[in-house]
């Protein structure tokens, strides 16, 4: 990969320009690099380099086994392993209810617990800082001379003509230049400007809850479990992170009303630690300190189309989902797999990769699959936000029944790991 400062870049022709060198955009560059296409990745922020003594970032994601397999296949996983990652072997979900009547249900009927051993796997997934995944992918992309990373540079304008797209970009010193290409991939996140310039409409819906992500140091042993307790005001989640200098860290996610999240956001570290001790389940290991926090409003967004002439949208540019089941970037990597497959098929048939007919197979499968996952998340969200007593009984019993049916449980586990339904990995193995 060549690294280019946009100031020095003359108007250049590329086969493919990926706007956004985040996790999904850079994964597509790695997956398509073997095709020989001349690819540019445009990224406005250069991620900070890794050092082993850095405390964990606030932005982390639970990556499924399916995402791990994809990242291995495109040659990026080894770079993540060379930095840091935290496997989790167990996962537990339960409802933290306050109604004494619900205590009448036997304890084993109030919780679902998964263990990777039950299906012969060493782990269910990994918690990884988003920046580490991005750095690993950019490092892998650097192996390919046909991939150019243009950073820091921002897309300023996009003109779409029948046979090509023209992108006006500007670097951090204000110098602008123009790129032209057959296909623009919008991997530029939830506020995608590619989506806007391509005139692709968006369905969006704000959830009633917001999320506060809190990084903490905790005492005791390094945890290998991720858990989520549903409370009447929203879930409380625990995600273990990799040890740094022998100290244990975790990412907590506190979902609640916007007013509560705003209140928590205003607390200092010591007060927030006390509030967490009061409001999180007793399962939480004792905390040493709160390191940092950040709030996120939760918006469901779905692009009305994923493709238009000369444009394809992927990842958060195409869809955002409630993070309560940690699916967002895992779905983005599934988009990447399908788009790579679609473009390789088009190249094999000698088709123009920016032509709508070449892009449609990607949209056809991925829009439907993402729509389904969004509906499942909505069902979860609305079912667990409802405080009616009969429904509380039903969902507790549901969690318990899921826990008691080994076959069903294995199926759910494989689904959570992204292994069911299995997606083919059609493109070449890394050299
Ligand atoms: C609280 C929270 C918890 C989450 N937890 C999980 C989880 O556990 N598991 C999971 O799978 N997902 C999770 N997600 C979702 C996950 O973070 C996103 O799905 C993922 O970051 C999307 O990746 P992306 O590459 O599509 O977009 P982004 O990460 O948004 O990357 C877009 C990139 O495009 C660049 N860019 C934007 N505009 C321009 C421009 N005009 N010019 C140049 N560059 C541009 C940006 O700088 C950025 O690098 C969570 C989300 C939240 C909010």
Structure in words:
With 431 residues, this protein is of the alpha/beta class. It has a domain at 2-50 and 132-204 and 300-416: FAD/NAD(P)-binding domain (3-Layer(bba) Sandwich). The chain is 32% helix and 31% strand. The protein has helices at residues 23-32, 65-73, 77-82, 130-141, 193-197, 258-265, 269-279, 328-348, 356-385, 389-404, 406-416, and strands at 2-4, 12-19, 39-42, 60-64, 86-88, 90-95, 111-115, 125-129, 147-150, 153-160, 165-171, 176-186, 202-218, 225-231, 234-240, 248-256, 287-303, 307-308, 311-313, 319-320. The strands form 3 sheets. Strands 1, 2, 3, 9, 10, 11, 12, 18 and 19 form a 9-stranded mixed beta sheet that branches. It has an 8-stranded mixed beta sheet with strand order 7-6-14-15-16-13-17-20, with helices on both faces. Strands 4-8-5 form a 3-stranded antiparallel beta sheet. Strand 15 (234-240) and strand 16 (248-256) form a beta hairpin. Helix 1 packs parallel to helix 8. It is globular, with a radius of gyration of 22 Å. Residues 422-431 have low confidence and may be disordered. Bound molecules: flavin-adenine dinucleotide (FAD). Flavin-adenine dinucleotide is lined by residues 19-25, 42-45, 61-62, 130, 154-155, 187-189, 193, 211, 213, 296, 315-316, 323, 326-330, 332.
């Amino acid at each position: 990969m060549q690294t280019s400062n946009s100031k020095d870049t003359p108007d250049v022709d590329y086969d493919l320009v990926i706007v956004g060198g985040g996790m999904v955009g850079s994964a597509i560059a790695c997956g398509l690099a073997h095709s020989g296409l001349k690819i540019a990745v445009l990224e406005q922020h250069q991620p900070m380099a890794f050092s082993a003594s850095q405390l964990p970032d606030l932005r982390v994601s639970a990556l499924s086994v399916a995402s791990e397999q994809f990242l291995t296949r495109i040659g990026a996983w080894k770079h993540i392993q060379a930095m840091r990652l935290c496997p989790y072997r167990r996962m537990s979900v339960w409802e933290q209810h306050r109604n004494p009547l619900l205590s009448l249900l036997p304890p084993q009927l109030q919780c679902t617990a998964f263990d990777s051993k039950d299906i012969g796997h060493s782990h269910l997934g990994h918690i990884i800082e988003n920046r580490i995944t991005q750095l690993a992918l950019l490092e892998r992309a650097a192996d390919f001379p046909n991939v150019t990373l243009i950073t820091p540079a921002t897309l300023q304008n996009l003109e779409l003509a029948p046979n090509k797209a023209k992108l006006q970009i500007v670097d951090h010193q204000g110098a602008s230049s123009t790129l032209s290409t057959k296909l623009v991939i919008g991997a530029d996140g939830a506020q995608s400007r590619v989506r806007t310039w391509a005139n692709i409409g968006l369905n969006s819906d704000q959830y009633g809850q917001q999320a506060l992500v809190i990084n903490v140091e905790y005492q005791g042993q390094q945890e290998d479990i991720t858990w989520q307790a549903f409370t009447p005001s929203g879930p409380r989640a625990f995600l273990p992170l990799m040890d740094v200098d022998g100290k244990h860290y975790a990412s907590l996610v506190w979902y609640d009303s916007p007013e509560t999240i705003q209140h928590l956001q205003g607390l200092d570290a010591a007060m927030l630690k006390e509030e967490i001790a009061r409001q999180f389940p007793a399962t939480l290991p004792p905390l040493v300190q709160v390191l940092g926090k950040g709030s996120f409003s939760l918006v469901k967004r779905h692009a009305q189309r994923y493709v238009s002439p000369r444009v394809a949208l992927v990842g958060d540019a195409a869809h955002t989902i409630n993070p309560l089941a940690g699916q967002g970037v895992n779905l983005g990597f599934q988009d990447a797999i399908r788009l790579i497959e679609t473009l390789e098929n088009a190249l094999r048939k000698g088709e123009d990769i920016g032509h709508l007919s070449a892009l449609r197979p990607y949209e056809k499968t991925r829009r439907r699959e993402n729509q389904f996952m969004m509906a499942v998340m909505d069902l979860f969200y609305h079912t667990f936000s409802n405080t009616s007593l009969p429904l509380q009984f039903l969902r507790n019993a549901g969690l318990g029944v899921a826990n008691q049916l080994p076959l069903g449980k294995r199926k759910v586990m494989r689904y959570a790991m992204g292994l069911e339904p299995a997606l083919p990995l059609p493109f070449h193995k890394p050299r």
